[in-house]
C-alpha cells in the first residue's frame, strides 16, 4: 500500500507563471485587458481562428451568450440535464425555460436524435456540453440548429484542444465557452473564455463584457468618449489571472500530451475488466485527456468501490447530479421525452485521478486496486 494519498486533482503550476505574476505586481497594472490579457487573446485567437475574449469564468462566458442571444422570459433553451448548474443558470437568470433532453449513454453527451422533438416555436437556443472533452455529434447538431434558425452554443468547459472531424470544439456554434478553472487541463484558478464565431456579434460582445459600455473602442481611439450603450456586466478577469494563464496556454500541447499518455495507460490497464465499462473515443473525435472515468454496475457498487479505493489512499469522485432531480427548481425546467439514461448512467460514473504530475506507476497502482476490488 502507498504511504501517501493520491489526490483526484492537482493543478499544474510552473515557475514561469510565478515570474509572470511578479511582473504584474511590479508594473502595478492589475485590472483587466492589460498586456497579459492581450497576449492570451492573441494565442487563443490563433488557436481557434476566431474572436476570443477572456472572462472571469466559463459561467460568465455562458451568461454573455445569453445576453448576446437576447434571452428573455418565455424563451426556451435546450440542453442536457447531465451538466454543471452553470449551464442552466446562465439562461434561467434571464428568464428562459430550460428544456432538458436525454443523453447518449455511450458518450454522456446530449442525444442529437431527440433534439427535433424538443424544439418548439419558443426555442431560442441549443446548448451542447462536450462531456469529458469528447465531442457531441456536431455535424448533425449544427444542421438541426441551422434548419430551425436557432442559436447553437457550445459549453466546451472541459474541451480545450479537443476536436470533431479535425475542427476544434467551441468553433461549431455561434458561440463557444471555455473554462480555465483549476480542475481543467489549462487553468488560472478561476477563469474562462468566450469564442465568438458569428461575426455580427463581435462588437456587442466587447460592449457586454465591458459593463455595457464602448470602453474598448475608446481605448483603441475609435470614439472620443465611452458611454453606456447596452446591457452588460463586469466580465473581465484580473491581469494576475491572465499572467498565470498565459504560461499555461504556451505549454498546452505539453500538458495535453502528458494527460493523454496517462489516459491511454488507464485504458490499457482496465479495458479487459468485465465488471466495468470504460469510455472509448471514436476516431473522428480527438479528445484532450481531460477525464478518465469508469462505469460500475450501479450506485451501490460505485459507493463500495469509492470506499475501497479510499482505504487504499486513492481519492476518486463521482460527477453531476442531473439537474432535473432538483425539485426546488422545477419551475425553471421541463424534461422533453423520457429520462432513459441520464439518471441511471450518472449513478454509475466514477472519475479516476488524472493530472499532469500523476505518475504512470501511480496509474498502474490505481488500476491494480480496481482489478483487486473486482477479483
Q: Tell me the Rg in angstroms.
A: 21 Å
- Range of strand content: 5-15%
Low-confidence segments: none
DSSP strand count: 14
Widest sheet, order of strands: 1-9-8-5-4-2-3-13
Task: Tell me what the CATH architecture of the largest domain is.
Answer: 3-Layer(aba) Sandwich
What does this 3D model show about the protein?
The chain is built from 13 helices and 14 strands. The strands form 3 sheets. It has an 8-stranded mixed β-sheet with strand order 1-9-8-5-4-2-3-13, with helices on both faces. A 3-stranded antiparallel β-sheet has the order 7-6-11, with no helix packed on it. The two termini are 17 Å apart. The model has no long low-confidence stretch (mean pLDDT 96). α2 (35-48) crosses α9 (239-250) and α10 (252-270) runs parallel beside α13. The chain is globular, with a radius of gyration of 21 Å. By secondary structure, the chain is α/β, with parallel strands linked by helices. It folds into 2 domains: 15-250, Aspartate Aminotransferase, domain 2 (3-Layer(aba) Sandwich), CATH 3.40.640.10; 252-374, Aspartate Aminotransferase, domain 1 (Alpha-Beta Complex), CATH 3.90.1150.10. α6 (138-147) links the parallel β4 (123-129) and β5.
Amino acid at each position: 500500500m502507498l504511504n501517501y494519498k493520491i489526490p483526484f486533482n492537482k493543478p499544474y503550476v510552473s515557475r514561469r507563471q510565478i515570474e509572470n505574476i511578479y511582473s504584474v505586481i511590479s508594473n502595478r497594472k492589475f485590472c483587466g485587458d492589460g498586456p497579459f490579457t492581450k497576449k492570451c487573446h492573441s494565442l487563443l485567437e490563433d488557436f481557434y481562428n476566431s474572436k476570443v475574449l477572456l472572462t472571469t469564468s466559463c459561467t460568465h462566458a455562458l451568461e454573455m451568450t445569453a445576453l448576446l442571444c437576447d434571452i428573455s422570459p418565455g424563451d426556451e433553451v435546450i440542453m442536457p440535464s447531465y451538466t454543471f448548474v452553470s449551464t442552466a443558470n446562465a439562461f434561467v437568470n434571464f428568464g428562459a425555460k430550460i428544456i432538458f433532453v436525454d443523453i447518449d449513454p455511450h458518450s454522456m453527451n446530449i442525444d442529437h436524435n431527440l433534439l427535433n422533438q424538443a424544439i418548439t416555436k419558443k426555442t431560442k437556443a441549443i446548448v451542447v456540453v462536450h462531456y469529458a472533452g469528447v465531442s457531441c455529434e456536431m455535424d448533425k447538431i449544427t444542421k438541426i440548429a441551422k434548419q430551425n434558425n436557432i442559436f447553437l452554443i457550445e459549453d466546451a468547459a472541459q474541451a480545450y484542444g479537443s476536436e470533431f472531424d479535425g475542427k476544434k470544439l467551441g468553433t461549431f456554434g455561434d458561440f463557444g465557452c471555455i473554462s480555465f478553472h483549476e480542475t481543467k487541463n489549462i487553468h488560472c484558478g478561476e477563469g474562462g473564455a468566450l469564442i465568438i464565431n458569428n461575426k455580427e456579434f463581435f462588437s456587442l460582445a466587447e460592449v457586454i463584457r465591458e459593463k455595457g459600455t464602448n470602453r474598448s473602442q475608446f481605448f483603441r481611439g475609435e470614439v472620443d468618449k465611452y458611454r453606456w450603450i447596452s446591457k452588460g456586466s463586469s466580465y473581465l478577469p484580473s491581469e494576475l489571472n491572465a499572467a498565470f494563464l498565459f504560461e499555461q496556454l504556451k505549454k498546452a500541447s505539453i500538458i495535453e500530451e502528458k494527460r493523454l499518455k496517462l489516459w491511454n495507460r488507464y485504458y490499457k490497464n482496465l479495458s479487459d475488466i468485465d465488471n466495468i465499462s470504460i469510455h472509448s473515443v471514436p476516431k473522428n473525435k480527438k479528445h484532450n485527456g481531460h477525464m478518465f472515468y469508469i462505469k460500475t454496475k450501479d450506485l451501490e457498487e460505485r459507493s463500495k468501490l469509492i470506499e475501497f479505493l479510499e482505504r487504499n489512499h486513492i481519492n476518486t469522485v463521482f460527477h453531476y447530479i442531473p439537474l432535473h432531480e432538483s425539485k426546488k427548481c422545477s419551475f425553471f425546467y421541463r424534461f422533453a421525452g423520457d429520462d432513459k439514461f441520464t439518471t441511471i448512467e450518472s449513478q454509475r460514473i466514477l472519475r479516476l485521478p488524472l493530472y499532469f504530475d500523476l505518475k504512470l506507476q501511480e496509474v498502474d497502482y490505481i488500476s491494480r486496486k480496481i482489478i483487486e476490488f473486482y477479483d
